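User: Fold this, then the next.

Assistant: Folding the first:
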Amino acid sequence: MVEAQIRFRDDEPVGDPAVTADSFGDQTNASAVRIEPGDDARALLPHLDRIRLVEVNFPGFGDGRGYSAARILREAGYAGELRAVGDVAVDQLNALRRCGFDAFAPEVPMNPADAERAFATWPDVYQPTTDGRAPIWKLRHG
């Protein structure tokens, strides 16, 4: 089984405890924040320069609001660790990574071979996203 966390970053994992998005503004020394479904990731945009970790909670498999939070943060220039936590299933990994997640802490450990296959699925993509992969139409037509 995979460790509690899968990372795609060269830096050290952020071990700071994450505070809630609601209390983040009051926590002047906090460098980690946790976004729950329903939290507006745009509230963090003025603070991106001091945030080292954003955890985005997926309390249920079918709740996709965390994907939008990731895109909002990455498109605004957030370069810190973006970690998907909670009910993260192996078949979500590829899409989560495309939205900008670079760390995963699933509730249920994953088989390493399954996780690697998930990340290798769909080598060609159709939409540009924050993962830097060129869409297939751009590869075909320059």
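Now the next one, as you asked:
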Amino acid sequence: MADMVIEPATEADIPAIRALMARAIDDLQRGFLSDAEIAASRAVMGLDTQLIADRSYFLARIGGALAGCGGWSWRATLYGGDHSSDLRDARTLDPAREPARIRAMFTDPAFARQGVGRAILDACEAAAAKAGFGRAELMATLAGEPLYRACSYTASERVTTPPVDGVAVPLVRMTKALP
């Protein structure tokens, strides 16, 4: 999309990012997850503000509107937000042995299927490659899996989250070699 701008997120963007994530979880997971799984996914999906502090989280704006967000990390955490502390691991990854993490990718439902996710993913992969990583890894939602497959990621493992109120959420671990 010609008028799309990709820029680093700042702490001032956090409220808008969280609102976008809530809309994306509620709307874009439909057709892939049950209502109970969508509710449970809110407990594990969300913003990890460490990505903003590390300056590795990006925003996509179209016509000035926040259209999407996503980031990459050199830390071991694979998925989860600030509120899912049991999933977090701040250990620094070794680019020679371990893949960079693609994290917290969300598109506003109003901008779905317009290249937002792909543009953010391209920015993340380029930054990770520049930092010396030869591979990237992510934990995809079922709704996100088609995008990642189209971007040459391959599934390595199908898992479920720890249950929330008795409901587990299906996820797919995916990897890709970076150019």
